[in-house]
Amino acid sequence: MSEGFYIQNRQFVVFKLGTEEYGVDIQNVTTIEKMLPITRVPKAPHYIKGVINLRGDIIPVIDIKEKLGLGTFEETDETRIIILQLKDIPFGVIVDEVDEVLQLREETIENVSNFTNDLSLDYISGVGKVDDRIVSLLNFKKLIDIDETGSEKDEN
Amino acid sequence: MDMSQYLEIFIDESKEHLQLLNQSLLSLEQNPQDRAVLDEIFRVAHTLKGMSGTMGFSKMTKLTHDMENVLHAIRNGELKINPDLLDLLFKCLDALENYTENVVNTGSEGDNDYAGLIDSLNAVLDKKAQGSQKAPSLKIEKEEKTDKPVYKTANFKLSEFEQNAVKKAYSMGMNVFEITVVFNESCLLKSARAFIIFQALERHGEIIKSVPKVEDIEDEKFDFEFTVVCIAKEEASTFSKEINQISEVKEVIIKPLDPEKLNESQLEENEDLSGVSNLQSDKKDGEGVREGNKSKVMSHKTKTGKTVRVDIDRLDVLMNLVSELIIIKTRLEGIEDIDASKNYAEAVEYLERITTSLHDSVMKVRMVPVELVFNRFPRMIRDISRELGKDIVLTMTGTETELDRTVIDEIGEPLIHLIRNSADHGIEPKEVRERLGKSPSGHINLKAYQVGNNVVIEVEDDGQGIDLEKVKQKAVERGFLKKDMVNNLSQKEAIDLLFKPSFTTSDKITDLSGRGVGLDVVKTKIEQLGGAVEVETEKGVGSKFIIRLPLTLAIIQALLVVIGDEKYAIPLNSTKEIIKITPEQIKMIQNQEVILLRNMVVPIVRLNKILEVPGDHDEKKNMTVVIVKKGEKTSGFLVDSLIGQREVVIKSLGKLLSGIKYIAGATILGDGNVALILDVNSLAV
């Protein structure tokens, strides 16, 4: 993802965790699934809820709320698993609700590191503003420590 | 032009030929007079030369060419085969193997030109020449045809654009050549050849036109000749030298551009336009191809080496089964009333049969004969026996036994360890053998055969066997054992000591073995593959290493168990038996829960605790224990209930969960849920 290659607009899948809105770059999203039975994996990191069978593939699923310190998910009709793929590593993320696909202009995305040095904000790569809404854009590479398993440095 | 598509073929064929060369050289060593073998070697060297030439691997070509010269001299009786000469040829083989390895890894032959080898090859020839005074006719015979055929590609016209380029070149004092290249009629990869020639030419000048067009040459849409117009500073001789180095070129005609072609023209304005665009697209193509080629080569790094050659018959069977699968699908779709129809049961039964056969055939596609691993051993034994000064005969049986490709890839290293072990530690020196009344040459027997769902590979030698007393003594010295325990040690336990990390009985460390990194590596590797190693040994008579390997790694038989609300699979090959116990039978020894099973103490592992299964676990009156074996030891896994035996497909948990303790993988159950496969080795006490 080289800089400058992007056209001004980027698309994000916007989802809710509790009441807050978050976004993930649509290029990383493979599919969005309804809740599936999750098999717990013993000794896995606490935020990895387990694995699911996605049409024959075994995919680990992350409770993103727990990872972000927002409690844990409660299953409702709106609960979805967003299947992402980063650096060839597929994984699912449990979210409370998937809202829409949002187009954000590059200049409306603000870099958060400018106004805080709180560590938990490390997981957020930027904040998109649309009208009155604020969408936190998640940095999944940081979130799942993909640098440890993957090879390259994060470039967002 | 993209060479990478040929690269794969080249690699496969080179490997085959090198293997053949290896075998032939070995048999030549046994029967130096065997003319047929010599011819075979010559043929192989020649083919390799041709192939590497085609691919533009000039160093490989040079080496094989010089080998060929030496072999030619042997064939003519001008040279006698002696051990030194054979050693030299074996070294050449190693060098060629290195080249091929480089090609596999990087897509190019590498920088090593093995000048020393080539010098010694030539030295051998020189000696011969001095001896017989007859000058060796080293130069490649070339057909010198006097009758000039008419080259149809030489008739072309230059577009205005091209003419301008030529005029400009002339004004700058550059040369413009018209180069016609004619290939041998036997030339197989014409476009690849042409690509090499283009590359060679572009190193010295710029190609402004080619007849036929570059695209057509790429697609092999030309006979055996093509003509290019090239602008360059260099003289014609540079080009002729360059092109003549490329093999399978029959003839090169280089002449200054016919001035007539410059003046002829203005009539063809319409064509000019297309000519210009052609030229540009040609150029673009050229660049694109070069880059494309590079990136292909890069991606090649990871791609090669993981292929399986499949018998077309096996694919046909697969094809058939898949079509039957489609038929049954249609049939099932046609059944509307599931309950009433007896057709339904029939169809399901049919489906079951097809899936079983499908599974079998797909497994067979992945199977390759152990020969692939075995065939490097004769050479190894030859080298070892020369090095150690021992006479060792290697016999191999059951080389056609088949194993899964993934297993084959991993099994080579442990086998090398075992064979070296046998040769170094096992087989005694000749004098000792004679004194003991054994045959002077030692025997190593490599045997592969299938037993049920396992393949067994045995490495047997008739050497001195393993001195278990010495093993025990060493173990005490190295602190693996307490002195007073030595006498209680069973033979099995003593042998187990051999597989302890950094254990060696050898007093001196040789180049081959004795560093003590051997057997534990063998054991770990084979256990990783889901197999097991056993040793049988008798002092003074010999020893036998027995390796048991599963046929495939992808599908296993497993025992499904329930713990709390969760289901887990335990690989059946590590389960021994299932027993029922009452809570009173569990005793405590040194803070470890154990049970007595037929007078054996078996430690108990409470899976619900170790796997942190949520929920309460009341002590039930009847408890189910799955007895598993880890090597020679047993443990009892306490589970809540059993579901039964299933054939499960092993799937990985993925990178994110790699290295998770206690879990070896996952599988998908009939109801679509995921069950985890337990890693017995890490769970057992």
From TrEMBL, chain A:
One of its GO terms (cellular component) is cytosol. Transmembrane segments: none annotated. It comes from the Bacteria. Residues 9-149 form the CheW-like domain. SMART domains: CheW. GO terms for biological process: chemotaxis; signal transduction. PANTHER family: CHEMOTAXIS PROTEIN CHEW (PTHR22617:SF23), CHEMOTAXIS SENSOR HISTIDINE KINASE-RELATED (PTHR22617). This is Chemotaxis protein CheW. It comes from Acetivibrio saccincola.
